[in-house]
Specification:
By secondary structure, the protein is of the alpha+beta class. The chain folds into 2 domains: 365 residues, no CATH class; 39 residues, no CATH class. The chain contains 9 helices and 25 strands. Helix 1 packs parallel to helix 2, helix 3 crosses helix 4 and helix 5 crosses helix 6. This is Neutral/alkaline non-lysosomal ceramidase N-terminal domain-containing protein.
Length: 459
């Protein structure tokens, strides 16, 4: 064991789009007309003997399977790392270039092509930087920045559902209807978990954080920004780099499908104005990690392993009657001048039904997990609710597991079945919420089994 066979490397590349690039993440397309802070793609490469694990975290809203499969195929050709050992995830900032079409937000094909090239180059250029290293998992509880955005409302309030034309039992983000709120409908995952990586000389190589906060979203519509994810990384790099710009900090998105920081009950807790809330939250999270670093148990000879499975999952699609009704509405709609009111949302979701009808009956959903020494990281390609992440964490030792979401694909929201029954924005059938009602249970079951298998091998 005198010759340490575990090595690690990290690198980041600027992926800031040029002005004029399309932005998605809202109901309608936006165009970049201002750049507040740079966007990055960041890598973390771990190697032990013949096993290599590659993590890439990208400042972008969403990347889907077709795009990422092409990127991974080129990474494999250039480095020999198979796609089962590569995790590429989106932070889910809503102020970045678009490579996927979401609702009425369109993909920017030029930016998509450029990002593909940068991600492959990032993987290639990280490998020569490998050096002997050690790892440690850590976690700190930060409950103050995560709130359920789904609310149970008073009986007199009618939460309109633009897909069914009826009413939901849950209202997501009840702007202007705060007086009708009864209570929030779920419990957030309040843990900020992280993986630290250092060289044997005690110099920092990377820190990969994971927090279940959707995004902050305090940038103007046309502004490019990495949101709180970038602020978190910037603060850590200021403190831990010690003048060495090779240290890479990154924040990944956890199980935050119904969690944000728009407080409709206790307002006025945060500074106002563009970017001030995201800067405050990002810095506070980083400072919580910095205060937690002392006492970490570093592992110089961590075992590396990966489990990977492609699971067939069914797709929710409109009935023949619903499809015909949606087509009739589209024929009567000018989408270039649509207004975002109740009628406008019905027309947007009518278009979604017609496009969703062209989907296959099922899709392959990638489920991936990594053992890194005494800790485990899971990866899921959608926006899963906190309930899913909390359930998965019970399978592992406290502080030794976290789930990276929006990884390897983007299927939109994947709520538990009982949440779908309640309704609310996250459950409305469309191209960003379309998996079968039992999908969450099925996917969570497979990942739970993977975690248990990793743990069995730890013993």
């Amino acid at each position: 064991m005198a010759n340490n066979l575990f090595r690690a490397a990290a690198l980041q590349k600027d992926i800031t789009p040029p002005l004029g690039t399309l932005i998605n993440g809202e109901f309608q397309v936006r165009y970049a007309n201002n750049i507040h802070d740079p966007l990055y793609a960041k890598s973390l490469l771990l190697k032990k003997n013949d096993t290599i694990l590659l993590f890439i975290v990208v400042d972008i809203c969403a990347m889907q399977q077709d795009f990422l499969d092409e990127v991974k195929a080129d990474i494999y050709k250039a480095t020999g790392i198979p796609k089962s050992h590569v995790l590429i995830s989106s932070t889910h900032t809503h102020s970045a270039g678009a490579v996927a079409e979401l609702l009425m937000g369109h993909a920017d094909l030029r930016y998509r092509k450029n990002l593909h090239r940068i991600l492959v180059d990032l993987a290639i250029e990280t490998r020569p930087l490998l050096r002997e290293a050690k790892v440690a998992f850590g976690a700190v509880d930060v409950p103050e920045h995560v709130l359920c955005r789904r609310y149970k409302m008073a009986p007199e309030y009618k939460a309109f559902n633009p897909v069914t034309g009826g009413y939901d039992r849950i209202k997501t983000n009840p702007f202007g209807n705060e007086e009708h709120i009864v209570e929030r409908s779920s419990t957030p995952d309040t843990q900020l978990a992280y993986l630290g990586v250092k060289g044997l000389d005690d110099q920092w190589i990377a820190l990969l954080g994971n927090y279940s906060l959707h995004y902050v979203g305090d940038a103007d519509r046309g502004t490019i920004s990495a949101d709180y994810f970038g602020c978190f990384a910037k603060r850590l790099e200021e403190v831990l780099s010690e003048g060495d710009d090779s240290f890479v900090a990154m924040m990944s998105n956890g199980t935050s499908g119904e969690i944000n920081i728009w407080d409709f009950i206790d307002t006025g807790r945060y500074p106002t104005g563009p970017h001030r809330k995201s800067e405050y939250i990002g810095r506070d999270l980083a400072d919580k990690v910095l205060a937690n670093l002392r006492g970490l148990q570093w592992e110089e000879y961590p075992v590396l392993d990966v489990l990977y499975e492609e699971v067939p999952v069914g797709i929710r699609k409109p009935s023949a009657q619903e499809l015909e009704k949606a087509k009739q509405m589209i024929q009567d709609t000018d989408y270039e001048h649509i207004i975002l009111n109740e009628d406008g949302y019905r027309r947007i979701y009518a278009r979604e039904q017609v496009l969703l009808a062209e989907f296959p009956e099922q899709k392959q959903f990638y489920i991936q997990s990594f053992r890194i020494g005494s800790g485990i990281i899971g990866a899921l390609g959608g926006e899963f609710f906190a309930e899913t992440g909390l359930a998965l964490k019970t399978k592992a030792a406290t502080g030794k597991y976290f789930t990276i979401c929006l990884a390897n694909d983007y299927v939109g929201y994947v709520p538990p079945k009982h949440e779908i029954m309640l309704g609310g924005y996250e459950t409305w059938r469309c191209r960003t919420s379309f998996l079968e009602e039992i999908a969450e249970e099925k996917i969570r079951g497979v990942l739970s089994e993977q975690i248990e298998q990793h743990i069995h091998e730890l013993v």
